[in-house]
């Protein structure tokens, strides 16, 4: 899709239904293709056993509309009742989910959900109320396939384990993992809703009172573009944070899933509008995120023109108008003043302008498919820069990357390089280039704030359409 297409033009038709075939069940030992992620087995009203095949980037729809993937004639079924998705998660797995679009909801394992998106695990039973049931069977591991030489043949099916923490039932179904934390699917037993439980390994030197004070600040946040923190609990080994569940993966995976790893101008504008509204909410409360990057922006549910949420507030800072001498975040998203403060310990930087710089980097990546500073070494490039850090980086625990050598080149470019806007991409979108360049101003007092960015010509030329789409998506989830 061309990058110069407007928001209104590019959004039209993005939710059109696509027809998919529904096949009879295969022989007892099927060999599905690698693209098949899940199958949904059901028995039709005439007693026929059928299976819906779900693949990545090919969602299935269930409803009365003849264009749905699977058509149900029952009067209790909405025209478009629900949509089934399979997407890649950040840890290399597959997230299978169901988005309810109906008037009377869907039933998962005997409990009703309405106007939300839920994750479906292997063996889950999904039902259209007073209509058919569908058994979800995950297929993204072939029968007989082994992960390593020590796996049994055939593999032993892992039993789902659960653990009760506060009013939440935490399952062993892992949604993501990192060096110091894992995220598991959990159930809020009081409200009966799915949530995410992020379990962070505590360090012996952690001052838990300070940590809980910061968590309580996050619990008080309430904005549609901020990943909601419901509750927190800790023991001697872990801090458990219960979060609003997002089923659409992260923005990085969403971007790279597109052709040339680029989004059209219209979709970029819609996502940036939400990102800046979420940042405005934070900055108005004098909170800075300090680690904005596509991996920390979640999609509330799968599909085009997604509702996004800013997540992972582990490095967030209150009183963000004050200068800090503790640099944290990801090198390739740090502003010049952050890079200088990182390598010259007597220098500080301010969190809110740093967030605006990071937002500019994210905007650049969405429109171009590449990072303005983080790319392969160009011949002769080492002669272009004179910047040298005052000392070696030493302890990298506060910075989320692994290659010190490549970071040094990126840091040189950020401190001494100017952002290039290739004409073949940007010449048709001058208002977008103008905003992006204002967010990537070297001198942070002159850098665009979130308030100024939201008033830019790029947004104002389609503000009514943006606001209407924003309200519609926030209501529908």
Automatic annotation (TrEMBL):
PROSITE patterns tied to this protein = FHA_DOMAIN, PROTEIN_KINASE_ATP, PROTEIN_KINASE_DOM, PROTEIN_KINASE_ST
Per its UniProt record, what SMART domains does this chain match? FHA, S_TKc
Q: Please indicate if the UniProt record lists Cell cycle as a keyword.
A: no
Per the database record, which ranges form the FHA domain? Answer: 60-113
User: In the record, what terms sit under GO molecular function?
Assistant: ATP binding; protein serine/threonine kinase activity
Keyword entries, A-Z: ATP-binding, Kinase, Nucleotide-binding, Serine/threonine-protein kinase, Transferase
- All copies of the Protein kinase domain together span 169-459
Q: Which residues bind ATP?
A: 198
Q: Known PANTHER family for this protein?
A: SERINE/THREONINE-PROTEIN KINASE
**The protein, known as:** Kinase-like protein
**Species per Swiss-Prot/TrEMBL record:** Obba rivulosa
């Amino acid at each position: 899709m061309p990058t110069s297409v407007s928001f209104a033009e590019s959004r039209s038709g993005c939710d059109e239904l696509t027809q998919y075939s529904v096949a009879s069940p295969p022989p007892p030992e099927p060999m599905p293709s690698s693209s098949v992620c899940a199958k949904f087995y059901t028995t039709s009203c005439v007693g026929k056993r059928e299976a819906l095949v779900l693949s990545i980037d090919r969602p299935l729809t269930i409803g009365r509309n003849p264009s749905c993937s699977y058509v149900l004639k029952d009067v209790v079924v909405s025209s478009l009742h629900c949509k089934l998705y399979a997407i890649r998660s950040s840890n290399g797995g597959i997230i299978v989910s169901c988005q309810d679009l109906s008037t009377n909801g869907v039933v998962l394992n005997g409990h009703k959900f309405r106007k939300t998106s839920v994750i479906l695990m292997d063996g889950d039973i999904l039902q259209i109320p007073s209509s058919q049931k569908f058994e979800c069977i995950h297929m993204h591991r072939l029968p007989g396939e082994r992960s390593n030489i020590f796996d049994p043949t055939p593999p032993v099916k892992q039993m789902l384990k659960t653990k009760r923490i506060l009013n939440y039932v935490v399952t062993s179904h892992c949604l993501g993992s990192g060096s110091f934390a894992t995220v598991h699917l959990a159930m809020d037993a009081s409200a009966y809703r799915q949530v995410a439980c992020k379990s962070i390994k505590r360090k012996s030197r952690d001052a838990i009172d300070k940590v809980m004070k910061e968590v309580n600040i996050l619990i008080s946040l309430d904005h549609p573009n901020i990943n909601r923190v419901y509750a927190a609990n800790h023991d001697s080994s872990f801090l458990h944070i219960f979060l609003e569940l997002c089923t659409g993966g992260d923005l990085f995976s969403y971007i790279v899933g597109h052709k040339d790893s680029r989004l059209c101008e219209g979709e970029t504008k819609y996502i940036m509008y939400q990102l800046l509204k979420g940042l405005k909410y934070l900055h108005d409360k004098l909170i800075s995120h300090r680690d904005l990057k596509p991996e920390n922006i979640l999609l509330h549910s799968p599909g085009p023109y997604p509702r996004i949420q800013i997540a992972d507030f582990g490095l967030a800072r209150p009183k963000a108008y004050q200068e800090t001498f503790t640099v944290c975040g990801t090198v390739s998203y740090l502003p010049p003043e952050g890079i200088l403060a990182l390598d010259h310990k007597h220098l500080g930087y301010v969190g809110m302008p740093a967030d605006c710089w990071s937002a500019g980097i994210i905007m650049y990546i969405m429109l171009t498919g590449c990072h303005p500073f983080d790319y392969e070494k160009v011949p002769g490039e080492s002669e272009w820069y004179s910047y040298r850090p005052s000392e070696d980086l030493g302890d990298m625990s506060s910075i989320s990357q692994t290659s010190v050598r490549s970071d040094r080149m990126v840091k040189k470019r950020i401190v001494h390089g100017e952002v290039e806007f290739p004409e073949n991409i940007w010449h048709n979108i001058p208002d977008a280039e103008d905003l992006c360049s204002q967010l990537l101003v070297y001198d942070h007092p002159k850098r665009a704030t979130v308030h100024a960015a939201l008033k830019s010509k790029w947004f104002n030329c389609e503000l009514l359409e943006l606001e209407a789409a924003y309200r519609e998506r926030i209501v529908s989830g």
